[in-house]
Design brief:
Elements lengths: L2 E6 L10 H10 L2 E6 L8 H11 L2 E10 L5 E6 L6 H27 L6 H8 L6 H10 L6 H9 L14 H10 L3 E4 L9 H13 L4 E6 L4 H13 L3 E5 L23 H9 L3
Parallel strand pairs: 1-2, 2-3, 5-6, 6-7
Antiparallel strand pairs: 3-4, 4-5
Helix pairs in contact: 1-2, 4-5, 5-6
């Protein structure tokens, strides 16, 4: 069976691989298609697509936009026109807000007693899109934590003392921006919204009215019960399903591309449905 992964990250946000390395890795792991969906950035997509064409694996141009939320809401956009001027201009503003967010995180970590600076984070990042993973990597380097996962679990995840929820766009703006750029919008990792079933249904119904195309029906951290609930909800609301591992390479070494924690399978039919369904 042909397998895919529609949620991955490169060095252009918080992954450890270059776009070309990521695409080659996906190919070597037996995947038939992969989407590069860096946070608030399209900088690596052209390289990924070119490498896919060179070695013979389908690469879907994508992005993961962060939205304002009391918890955590991310909107994936697939089949994005990476030359769309409106999107590119808006991403400049988004990156500026991200810088303000990372400065806030840095100050919170310093207030907690950690000797970290923005200059150190920027040196580690290798990109102009700073993310929490870069702080986590710095904390590992300085011996404050043993792993990126520990840094998130104790300090950087939503609800932890160094978390900042500052974002540039509302959820509706994310959906509309993706649609305007010719893409298809999907709500990522639904469990992180922390919404009970009825509230989640109302949330998705509201976004569907703004052009939401689907939800992430397969994801590394979903329990079997979550996956069944979210896929059933998508069917009920006539929304498409996507699926991905949220692969970050060495930054999250416990997550394998295409397989998540080791037993995940996302069939190519998921991608076929995204391509063919008309809402």
């Amino acid at each position: 069976m042909k397998m895919i992964d529609l949620h991955t990250h490169s060095i252009y946000s918080d992954g450890s691989m270059t776009p070309a390395e990521l695409v080659r890795h996906a190919k070597s792991e037996g995947l038939s298609a992969v989407a590069l969906s860096d946070h608030d950035s399209l900088s690596g997509v052209a390289e990924a697509v070119a490498e896919g064409e060179r070695i013979g694996i389908e690469v879907i141009p994508a992005i993961e936009l962060s939205a304002e939320s009391d918890t955590e809401t991310h909107i994936l956009g697939y089949f994005i026109d990476i030359t769309n001027e409106t999107l590119l201009e808006k991403l400049k503003y988004v990156r500026q807000v991200r810088i303000e967010r990372e400065e806030e995180i840095c100050q919170k970590l310093r207030d907690l007693g950690f000797d970290v600076t923005m200059h150190e984070v920027e040196e580690l990042a290798e990109t102009d899109v700073l993310c929490r993973a870069h702080f986590a990597k710095l904390m590992v380097k300085k011996g404050y934590v043993e792993s990126v996962k520990e840094a998130f679990d104790k300090y950087l995840a939503n609800g932890r003392p160094a978390y900042s929820g500052r974002q540039a766009l509302t959820d509706e703006e994310c959906v509309e921006l993706i649609n305007q750029a010719g893409g298809k919008a999907f709500v990522a990792h639904l469990h992180l919204t922390r919404k009970p079933h009825d509230e989640l249904k109302a949330f998705l119904t509201r976004l569907k009215a703004k052009g939401l195309y689907g939800v992430e029906g397969y994801y590394t951290e979903y329990t079997p019960e979550m996956q069944a609930e979210y896929q059933a909800l998508a069917t009920e609301l006539d929304l498409a399903i996507s699926g991905g591992t949220d692969f970050h390479g060495a930054f999250k070494p416990h997550i394998s591309i295409g397989r998540g924690l080791g037993n995940m399978t996302i069939p190519y039919s998921v991608l076929d449905n995204i391509k063919e369904i008309k809402k």
